[in-house]
Amino acid sequence: MIKVFLVDDDKILLPMLKYGLEEAGNSVETSSSIDAYQRICETLPDVIVLDVMMPVIDGISLCQMLCTNPSTQNIPTIFLTSAVTEENKAQAAFLGVMHMLQKPVEISRLATVIQQEDALHQIKATWTNTDTVLSELLQRYPNATDEDAEICT
What we know:
The chain has 153 residues and is an alpha/beta fold. It is 52% helix and 16% strand.
């Protein structure tokens, strides 16, 4: 089950998205932009879905805040917007956001993108852990050769 945190100021759309994503097998927390940062930091979800245009703090500014926090900077983020612009696309790319979905979004499309983002995040984490282990081994055994590696296999 993927833990999703959904931030949108639309009081009609938010519960519909929550329901649809839960029906797709996700665990979903929701918030308006006002308390979203604090709640995301507390819950540490697997994937964050942010509306780009919100009145108090927009999704891009919220994403920038999350990117500067070590505990949230690597959580995959998806942007939702009713107006995809070149400026929004550039800001998303700069922040490392790979998906910007146009509203209204089909629940099945959003659920698929959430699954893709979570899977990619897990792969990256595995690679990072493997790289860390390999670096530690190289530091511990700096004179190891390929022949030594064959003995271990």
